[in-house]
């Protein structure tokens, strides 16, 4: 992050200009205050910082045992200080000059109360930070704790203008703070994934579960490998990079459901539970276990050094329901018991290979099925009603929560609806994502019904949005896992804005509010209809059925009659409420874009994130402009109909309407190109063929994930592309030319090509 730094040669001090930028709404009371440590995230367990301040300068050095010189904590400290123009040397002794002293000594930092009972694991992550004029000391029991102490210190340094005197003693509440990164329908470049992991580590996130689906080069299943995929060597490189930053790279593979990326291929059709549905494996088919055992083993062999693996039994709705499985399910004691049998078989195999296996303790697993699971597994989903039963069986527990669930453009951090509306994934829309996560984690921890060891913060990019939008939730949710005492959702969000974008950030909270509201409106501003463009869906969590998929559209533009230009349908495509909302949101959209551009000029380390937010604002803004324009186009058609007594005027009104449609297309195409230019800076191309491989474009028979509507990024404008403006254009063009010919006016022959976006 950028800040102006002046070196005063006569005293070698660093001076940061200005105070924190004022931030509106819920941030104002937190971010504008000058209280020491107001920008720290996670919030330390014990913090005694005074009002006294001192400065660091170029006469300081880093004092560390020579054995620490090449360790990540020291390298991170040096790099972080360079970002504020302070390049300090590392020496083996403290000496007489001011120093930042790094000490690793087992037993040097005692920890206090914690939810997690594995005190040894928490102790390894503990640190103490002492801040005195001329002497900063970071002490830890182990390298991991030292690294975390450095991150806290760097947050204080970057907050400026001076460091507070005092002391911080800190440790996590639970051993693991995991984020789930969804690369099912896109793949970041390796350099981007490393940036993401490094950034996660600065918030003391220590586990990174990545879902790749066909974006890994499986030797055991080459048919499923997509045009761009990580090699085993690259996966190991990423694992080693993560481990160096005290993050466990957690392989993620769905089984037995959510596997259309496998079962859509003819080679694996025989493994389907139901022949014409590509959603779920048959768990009783021996070939299913053989394939999954090979795939999991490849992920394990490519992630040597990792501790965990996630056996994602998510939404295995149909286990035991098909005739091929019913007899075995009945003999074992039900569908849940059959799923437990299958999971045990896989989990035991993974455990033999040295991994701790996480799973989702959810339907169709029941309370009576818990004892059929091996106690070495770890439950990733907290359920109050059966938490004690898992604990009794010796199964430890994570708390699962999400920074996003089904939102397709931007997470509902600050919802537009604030009363009783419930989101599609069941979360309370009234409070917003951060508050929802805090409530779920806090409620679980305070209940003390489980043997807790971690939290999992998920973001489901299979909804189509960019995962870079998840960081507010990732950082605050895992912060609640580190220490949820004396930290409110509003305070955590404010701390994030300052720590992530820097203390000079300008009103980023308002940007998030605007994007949250306008992304929500983006979804609700079009009508849902049975899709005439896609194959029917074949079921849901309750049952199997055949019914049309849902897609979005709007009422058609009015069409003038031939010869008379009469308009029979005078209904606007955009109803009055939506139109008024769109008009009122346009100035806020412009304000958000202005703020983002200003913050880009202030930022140093979050430029890409700001660009992604800028692309989201552009998507929302284009939708608002289109809604307003469609009604204006309707007005022009009506005005043409009313002006038939003056044929030249009538034709000019139709020309103006068509010109506005043409401008709409240009705006849509330029916005789409802008979004592509940003997203593909860090993403691999979304193409049908590359690297000798071909992507099989076939949708999931049960789950409707927006990215699978198209091969490329055009799923973002799927509804616009299917809005029938080409037909309207051609019909209006014919009416216009017929009318012009009747009145000896010039003819035109322009093509729209609405469905073409490049």
Automatic annotation (TrEMBL):
Gene3D superfamilies: Chitobiase/beta-hexosaminidase domain 2-like, Glycosidases. GO terms for molecular function: beta-N-acetylhexosaminidase activity. PANTHER family: BETA-HEXOSAMINIDASE (PTHR22600), BETA-N-ACETYLHEXOSAMINIDASE (PTHR22600:SF57). This is beta-N-acetylhexosaminidase. The active site is at residue 315. Residues 1-21 form the signal peptide. Belongs to the glycosyl hydrolase 20 family. GO terms for biological process: carbohydrate metabolic process; glycosaminoglycan metabolic process. The keyword Signal applies. Residues 40-171 form the Beta-hexosaminidase bacterial type N-terminal domain. It comes from Dyadobacter fermentans (strain ATCC 700827 / DSM 18053 / CIP 107007 / KCTC 52180 / NS114).
